[in-house]
Design brief:
about 130 residues, alpha+beta, three-stranded antiparallel β-sheet, elongated
């Protein structure tokens, strides 16, 4: 996490193992928050209890919103197959979440989009 902007440079999926844990026993730091999913464990060290409670409240609000809507940010380039869009959507579908994907192209001369191939790959992941 970048301390100046509070940005996390990697995606944290809200999958079946997603947890928000508090306390010294879980975080090994006072006023810490541990965010855990199947891929990563992130520990946030807060300055005081007030900051910790504020972070926790924001995280709980985000998890409630994620049950209704998922925004996927694509990060390129990557050598890791885990962050390919079809793999991310496949993991989400494995958790019994119904997915609707809208595939479109804006600039036809710059992007070759084979929608039948895309549809077949995405349906094959479910």
């Amino acid at each position: 996490m970048r301390p100046d902007t509070y940005e996390v440079p990697f995606p944290m999926l809200l999958n079946r193992a997603f947890e928000i844990l508090l306390g010294f026993r879980n975080t090994r730091t006072y006023n810490g928050i541990q965010i855990k999913n199947l891929q990563r464990i992130l520990v946030i060290k807060c300055l005081n209890t007030c900051d910790s409670e504020e972070w926790t409240q924001h995280l709980l609000n985000l998890t409630n919103q994620a049950k209704d809507f998922i925004k996927i940010m694509l990060i390129k380039p990557t050598d890791d197959e885990t962050f390919r869009l079809d793999n991310i959507l496949g993991k989400i579908a494995d958790e019994d979440v119904r997915l609707y994907a809208v595939v479109f192209k804006e600039v036809s001369f710059a992007i070759d989009l084979n929608s039948l191939y895309t549809k077949r790959i995405l349906i094959g992941k479910s």
